[in-house]
Inverse folding.
C-alpha cells in the first residue's frame, strides 16, 4: 500500500475556506481522505467542498469564540464518525508596530492561534492519530512589526513539542509546519508594497514565493504513514529563507 495515501481516513481542516487551508483540504481529498472543512465563511467553504471527491462535510465555525472548538469537534465526529487527522490551520495575523498593540488585538490572536487549536485537540482525543499545526517563519526568525503574531506561532511550536511527548505513547503524532511567504490573499497587501516581491525572492534560496499547494503537500506527508516515525517536529516549508543568509548578495 502506498504510504502517502489516506484512503479510508477522515480529516478536519480549520480555516479551509481559502488560501492554504483550501489547498490542504484539496490535497487531503486527492490523497483519499474524507474531509470536514471548517471556517466562518459558509459560501466560500461550499465552493471549496464542491471540488472535492470524497463526500466532504462543511462546518461553519468562529474559532474566536471559547465554546466553538468543542462544538466543532463534536460536529465533526458526528458527521464523520471519527477524526483521524486534525489540521489546525485557522489563524489571525496582525502586522503593526508594537507601540500600537492593544489588549484586544493580542487576545484576538491568542484566541484563534493558540487557544482554539489546543481546545480542538483536547476535544478530539484520544481518537485523533495525526495532528498538524500551522506555525510560521515568524516563530523561527525575527520579523518586524509581528511581535504578537510571532509569539502565538512560537506557542504553537512549543505545544507541538509538548503534545508529541504526551500523546506519543498512545500512537498520536503531532507536528507543525512553518511556512514563509505564501502567495495568498492574506499576503496581497504586502505584495503590493514596492520591492517586496523581489526582496523575498532574492532572500529565498529557491528563488520564489510559496504556492498554497507547496504547504498542503507537506501536510499530506505528515498526516500519512510515510511520516509514521515523525513527531514533535517543526518543518520549515519556506524555500530556505529562515535558515540561510547570503551576506554577499551572490557576489564572491
Amino acid at each position: 500500500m502506498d504510504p502517502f495515501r489516506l484512503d479510508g481516513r477522515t480529516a478536519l481542516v480549520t480555516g479551509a475556506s481559502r488560501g492554504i487551508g483550501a489547498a490542504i483540504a484539496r490535497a487531503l481529498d486527492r490523497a483519499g481522505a474524507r474531509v470536514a472543512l471548517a471556517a466562518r465563511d459558509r459560501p466560500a467553504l461550499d465552493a471549496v467542498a464542491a471540488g472535492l471527491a470524497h463526500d466532504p462535510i462543511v462546518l461553519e465555525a468562529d474559532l474566536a469564540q471559547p465554546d466553538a472548538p468543542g462544538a466543532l469537534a463534536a460536529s465533526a465526529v458526528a458527521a464523520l464518525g471519527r477524526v483521524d487527522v486534525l489540521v489546525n490551520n485557522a489563524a489571525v495575523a496582525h502586522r503593526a508596530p508594537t507601540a500600537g498593540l492593544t489588549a484586544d488585538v493580542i487576545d484576538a490572536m491568542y484566541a484563534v492561534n493558540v487557544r482554539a487549536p489546543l481546545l480542538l485537540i483536547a476535544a478530539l482525543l484520544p481518537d485523533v492519530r495525526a495532528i498538524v499545526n500551522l506555525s510560521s517563519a515568524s516563530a523561527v526568525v525575527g520579523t518586524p512589526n509581528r511581535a504578537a503574531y510571532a509569539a502565538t506561532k512560537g506557542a504553537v511550536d512549543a505545544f507541538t513539542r509538548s503534545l508529541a511527548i504526551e500523546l506519543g505513547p498512545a500512537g498520536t503524532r503531532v507536528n507543525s509546519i512553518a511556512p514563509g511567504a505564501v502567495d495568498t490573499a492574506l499576503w496581497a497587501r504586502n505584495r503590493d508594497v514596492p520591492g517586496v516581491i523581489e526582496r523575498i525572492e532574492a532572500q529565498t534560496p529557491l528563488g520564489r514565493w510559496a504556492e498554497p499547494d507547496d504547504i498542503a503537500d507537506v501536510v499530506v506527508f505528515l498526516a500519512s504513514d510515510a511520516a509514521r516515525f515523525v513527531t514533535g517536529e517543526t518543518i520549515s516549508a519556506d524555500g530556505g529563507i529562515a535558515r540561510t543568509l547570503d551576506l554577499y548578495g551572490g557576489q564572491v
The radius of gyration is 18 Å. Strands lie at 10-14, 34-39, 57-60, 85-88, 130-134, 173-179, 234-237. The longest strand covers residues 173-179. The first helix runs from residue 19 to 30.
